[in-house]
Amino acid sequence: MTVEAQPVSELPDPRSLGFTVVAEDDLPTELTDLVDQVRTLIDTVAHTEADGADLAAARDLVAEAVKRIDGERRPIGALVHRSDFEGPVGFGTLTNVVEGPTNPAAPPMRLELTEEGLRAEVTLSGVYQGPPGLVHGGWIAAMLDQALGSASAAAGMPGLTANLDVNYRNPTPLNVPLEITARVTGTERRKVFVSAEIRHNGEVTAEGTAVMVQVALPG
Ligand SMILES: CCCCCCCC/C=C\CCCCCCCC(=O)SCCNC(=O)CCNC(=O)[C@H](O)C(C)(C)COP(=O)(O)OP(=O)(O)OC[C@H]1O[C@@H](n2cnc3c(N)ncnc32)[C@H](O)[C@@H]1OP(=O)(O)O
């Protein structure tokens, strides 16, 4: 098994394949601020003990806010390009549920390039709860999948997850900083082998490996 990243320059520009691309730097700060505020809203709604009158007033305010911004929408497959990543490896889906910068359902997580692969820090609120006080196992798998897929993409080999294997080693707590790391460990034809971990206080709480398969791009 060898690591042979395909030259990044050989990847097509997604615009030439018909994708809408938004530069991350062009997203209005009012939008990213709104995303943050809606995250707070979701967490607050999930845990509130407010009385009926306040809840009804809040519902009406939210309905009013929806009316105010409902109109033209970006297409479902729109991509975002990060300026801190060189060229084609900087693309991701704008509303990706784990890391999409305009998706308030995604936690405030951002994978950064490191010497060995990718790394992110994230703190998950009670919105991501499974067992009491702990992160939902499905969400742990989702974060690992994102880190694994992004590590492959960042190495110039974007693909789809064919196989994902997760081991839950220790409970993953809510409301504390978690560290996520991922890297490519090998390639074989179109297959890219990747591994990733989630840590709390330096201790591994979950680890995953995946086989990403590079798909033939049209055109
Ligand atoms: C620059 C251009 C623009 C790009 C834009 C980039 C934007 C994004 C960038 C970056 C962010 C990334 C972040 C994302 C993270 C999240 C990822 C996900 O959630 S992905 C969604 C869930 N996964 C699916 O929906 C796949 C569904 N499955 C399939 O579509 C097919 O099964 C597919 C493509 C995986 C393989 O199908 P086949 O027909 O193309 O290929 P076959 O011949 O079956 O397999 C190829 C090789 O893979 C192995 N393989 C296939 N399935 C396997 C499996 N389950 N386990 C192990 N190996 C498997 C086979 O044995 C074969 O290996 P041998 O070369 O012969 O040795």
From TrEMBL:
Its main location: membrane. Its EC number is 3.1.2.2. It catalyses: (9Z)-octadecenoyl-CoA + H2O = (9Z)-octadecenoate + CoA + H(+); tetradecanoyl-CoA + H2O = tetradecanoate + CoA + H(+); hexadecanoyl-CoA + H2O = hexadecanoate + CoA + H(+); decanoyl-CoA + H2O = decanoate + CoA + H(+). Keywords: Apoptosis, Cell membrane, Cell projection, Cytoplasm, Fatty acid metabolism, Hydrolase, Lipid metabolism, Membrane, Transit peptide. InterPro entries: HotDog_dom_sf, THEM4/THEM5_acyl-CoA_thioest, Thioestr_dom. GO terms for molecular function: hydrolase activity. Transmembrane segments: none annotated. It is found in: Cell projection, Ruffle membrane; Cytoplasm; Membrane. It is a peripheral membrane protein. GO terms for biological process: fatty acid metabolic process. It holds the Pfam family 4HBT. One of its GO terms (cellular component) is membrane. It comes from the Bacteria. Residues 133-204 form the Thioesterase domain. Belongs to the THEM4/THEM5 thioesterase family. PANTHER family: ACYL-COENZYME A THIOESTERASE THEM4 (PTHR12418). This is Acyl-coenzyme A thioesterase THEM4.
